[in-house]
Design goal:
Length: about 375
């Protein structure tokens, strides 16, 4: 009897006996030393891919003026031009770049040509806002073999997404003929992926005290008087009218010295302690043709007053939105002593907290 068939037959019996002890393929079927499929799991979750989270990005106008945003800007593709994406990847699928998933099966991907639409601007009225809905997908650059492509991905929940939202206070151009936002201002909006609503509110700006500017637009020099140390002088080149357009002028100076008695420092006996600094008179300065003199005001005025029978200066702090007038004074007399009657003065109205610069030109 040939021994080889007997050995083969015995081996077959052993294999069948081993199979009969299990449940069959798919039910913890054991291979490679008895390790089950479950025991061989590499730790990665097996399941449907994550769904993207859509985020609405917005810009709100809380000022009293119309703002403008750039919706289309030359050859720039969406998102709208007022949203400047600064995070990794791109927030939109660019048809000019082949998608990598198409190249996986077909190397003949044809990218579309990018058109250049007419630039457009959208007004944002006070109390309203503009919005853009981001799909939640981002596209990153990749390569398959030697061909460039972009691949779509979903960020992890909590990943920081950063965009700049931009607006301006004026526009150039007309509807239907293109337009651009002038001198845009941008603010960063940062949020964790998974956030459904993120944006920026443009609030009314409080500029504080203005800078006063007086310019000589004539062809000859004029004369200005610098401030006096110890008293209000009608010949000073800049002062304030606290109640413009009223019969009685409430004049205040925009500076003070430690030698002036402040009303809050006067005691019940009418005594006031001052620094004892010697009073100095103001100097006359020439403002030549084409020159400008400026003063950055700190927002505090000093008004002549009395307390307990003593002369003093009272501190005045305007409120935001209060109407004031800047009084600019000069004289055409360039030599000698100048009397108050020789001064030429003009008042320029302004609103405290709104006007950054108050100007007047001598013509």
């Amino acid at each position: 009897m040939n021994p080889k068939p007997i050995v083969a037959f015995c081996f077959l019996l052993l294999v069948l006996a081993g199979c009969s002890q299990g449940e069959g393929p798919g039910d913890d079927w054991r291979l490679d030393g008895g390790a089950s499929d479950a025991d061989r799991d590499d730790g990665q979750d097996v399941g449907p891919p994550p769904e993207p989270v859509e985020t609405t990005i917005w810009l709100k106008n809380d000022t009293d003026s119309t703002l403008y945003v750039q919706t289309v800007e030359g050859c720039r593709v969406s998102p709208p031009a007022w949203v400047d994406w600064t995070s990794d990847g791109r927030p939109v699928d660019r048809c000019a770049i082949c998608n990598c998933n198409r190249l996986d099966g077909d190397r003949r991907c044809r990218a579309c040509p990018e058109a250049c639409p007419i630039p457009t601007v959208q007004p944002v009225e006070p109390g309203t806002r503009v919005e853009w809905a981001w799909s939640g997908y981002r596209w990153v650059d990749d390569r398959i073999d030697s061909q460039n492509c972009e691949r779509r991905e979903i960020p992890d929940i909590g990943d920081q997404i950063r965009v700049d939202v931009c607006w301006g206070e004026s526009r150039q151009g007309s509807p239907g003929q293109g337009g651009s936002v002038q001198d845009p201002t941008c603010s960063e909006v940062s949020f964790g992926y998974g956030t459904t609503d993120a944006g920026h509110t443009v609030e009314a700006e409080e500029t504080g005290p203005p800078t006063f500017e007086l310019t000589n637009r004539t062809d000859k020099a004029v004369r200005l008087m610098t401030p006096l140390d110890c008293q209000i002088d009608e010949r000073e080149w800049i002062s304030l009218d606290l109640s413009p357009h009223r019969a009685e002028l409430r004049r205040a100076e925009v500076w003070s010295s430690c030698n002036q008695c402040r009303c809050e420092s006067i005691n019940d006996a009418g005594q006031c302690i001052v620094c004892g600094k010697a009073c100095e008179g103001g100097d006359w300065k020439l403002l030549r043709a084409g020159e400008t003199r400026s003063y950055a005001w700190e927002g505090v005025g000093w008004e002549s007053s009395q307390r307990n029978g003593a002369q003093c200066i009272s501190r005045v702090e305007p409120e935001v939105g209060q109407g004031l007038a800047a009084r600019f004074c000069w004289t055409e007399q360039t030599v000698g002593v100048v009397e108050p009657e020789a001064m030429i003065c003009t008042d320029i109205d302004f609103t405290y907290g709104s006007d950054r610069t108050v100007r007047y030109s001598i013509k």
